[in-house]
Amino acid sequence: MSIPSFDSPVVIHWFRRDLRWQDNRALHAALTSGLPVVPMFVFDKNILDRLDNPNDARVTFLHDRISQLQKEAGEHGGALFVTHGDPIQVLADLAVSGQVRAVYTNEDYEPYALTRDARVKADLEQHGVAFHTFTDHVIQAPGEVMKPDGTPYTVFTPFSKRWHLNLTAENMASAPSESHLGSLHNWTSSAVPLESMGFERSSISAPEAVLSKDVLAKYADLRDVPSVQGTSRLSVHLRFGTMSIREAAKAGFKHSEKWLTELIWRDFYQHIMHAFPHSMKDAFRPKYDLVPWRHDDEHFERWTQGKTGYPLVDAGMRELLATGFMHNRVRMVVASFFCKHLLLDWRLGERHFAAHLLDFELASNVGGWQWAAGSGCDAAPYFRVFNPTSQLQKFDRKYAYVKQWVPEWGTAAYPAPIVDHKMARQRAIDTYKAALSAAS
Ligand SMILES: Cc1cc2nc3c(=O)[nH]c(=O)nc-3n(C[C@H](O)[C@H](O)[C@H](O)COP(=O)(O)OP(=O)(O)OC[C@H]3O[C@@H](n4cnc5c(N)ncnc54)[C@H](O)[C@@H]3O)c2cc1C
Question: What is the pTM of this model?
Fold first, then answer.
């Protein structure tokens, strides 16, 4: 890893979850700081070294996006500094190199990121380099939407009401960073090949970042139908910031209140993660950690492969493996099936999703899983056990989604159910009930 040296003072914009030139708060502040800007991206070894799959689709997505930003920086007379390493070390090295006056970046609320950023800030300040952070990944930052008594909300509906009441023009204001790209520092940089980091190109690609008015107009009616494109498919772009959350929310206000509510769920889970970081690993409601989860490698494997004998579950799991995406309704069904029908620990299912979802977002993923397990804030009650067959009849009546992903469904090659629904439902209710009543 070689650190660039500069002849005159510069400021850094550190790209993380905000991989775009337009409407980018921290980038805008850097570009209007009066000093030339060096944009930077670090392929973080601490994160990449934990990925088992050399074909990880997220790494390909990131790499493509960084290459594009690098090209576009060149078109504006600048360059993007890209490296592979530990960001704490990279920034410390840049600070000692002498010409960096400040680092600008957008906030990241994951526990790992908070620890990292606290360390970066302390290191930079030791060298007299300022560290400026901005709210950009969410509309209202953790800490901004609180109960009147100053404590965090743990139930969505009152959170959402307060979110609306609190909302200011400032929360929604665009930052016209794209109009100031003439302030990029004029120098050159080189790329980091995917292979040099131990990865290969994945065949899985993300959908384009298109905010379709047509999809939003029909969203309330079609959002639960997995066989049609009734949802925006923007999750990967909101995750990596290839679309601005403010642009998305403005479209929600204009075209679909229901869709806007989903964006508020996203804010809600970020607030929960920030206020209750323990819940990223443990049950939000501690007594749910007393549920005696089963250990069953065969059932786990058959769930991951989409071979449970429950067609909607299998279709969802195969869609995930093939595309890195799964429809929200189906995510709810497969997660419920995992925790309730199979009585497997939600953490194992959450990790499987984390390894395969292109849109993997810790806060939303854990939120969705703990909702399904019943252990989360504002979760489904433990005795609500989705029936995967009636969910199929309700949301994929003509089997269009099932036929797309499970071609052998309806033939002798399709497996029999791995658990009987009636037995599994009762087993889940009895097991949860016994564990929860022993805890109280
Ligand atoms: C078990 C489980 C795991 C999940 N894991 C993730 C995850 O890792 N990353 C992720 O972004 N979403 C996750 N979700 C939420 C949701 O399923 C996806 O955001 C959605 O399916 C993405 O498709 P879309 O972009 O077409 O969504 P749309 O329906 O078009 O919604 C627009 C945007 O709102 C946000 N959103 C929608 N639903 C939710 C929700 N329930 N919670 C939080 N944000 C939401 C997303 O950013 C989404 O792109 C999970 C849900 C469940 C039940």
Answer: 0.98
> Which residues partner with 31 through β-bridges?
none
Q: Report how far ligand 1's centroid is from the alpha carbon of 274 (Å).
A: 18
The rounded Å distance from CA 364 to ligand 1 centre is: 7
Three-state DSSP class for residue 103: strand
Distance CA 327, CA 226 (A): 6
The helix/strand/coil state of 303 is helix
Q: What is the pLDDT along the chain (440 residues), one digit of tens a residue?
A: 689 999 999 999 999 999 999 999 999 999 999 999 999 999 999 999 999 999 999 999 999 999 999 999 999 999 999 999 999 999 999 999 889 999 999 999 999 999 999 999 999 999 999 999 999 999 999 999 999 999 999 999 999 999 999 999 999 999 999 999 999 999 989 999 999 999 999 999 999 999 999 999 999 999 999 999 999 999 999 999 999 999 999 999 999 999 999 999 999 999 999 999 999 999 999 999 999 999 999 999 999 999 999 999 999 999 999 999 999 999 999 999 999 999 999 999 999 999 999 999 999 999 999 999 999 998 888 999 999 999 999 999 999 999 999 999 999 999 999 999 999 999 999 999 999 999 87
- 328 catalytic? Reply is yes
- Residue 263's nearest CA partner among 137, 353, 79, 387 is 137
Pocket lined around ligand 1, Cβ cut-off 6 Å: 223, 231-235, 238-239, 259, 262-263, 265-266, 269, 328, 331-332, 335, 353, 357, 359-361, 364-365, 367-369, 372
Options 144, 171, 187, 328, the catalytic residue = 328
Answer yes or no: 369 catalytic.
Answer: yes
Residue type, 175: A
Residue 124 CA to residue 97 CA, distance in Å, equals: 12
Measured in angstroms, how far is the CA atom of residue 328 from the centroid of ligand 1?
6
CA of 172 to the centre of ligand 1 (A): 21
What domains does the chain contain, in order, with CATH numbers?
Answer: 8-136 (3.40.50.620), 138-173+212-275 (1.25.40.80), 286-439 (1.10.579.10)
Catalytic-labelled residue, pool 247, 262, 387, 409: 262
Give how far Cα 422 sits from Cα of 3, 79, 112, 386, 417, Å: 62, 61, 42, 11, 12
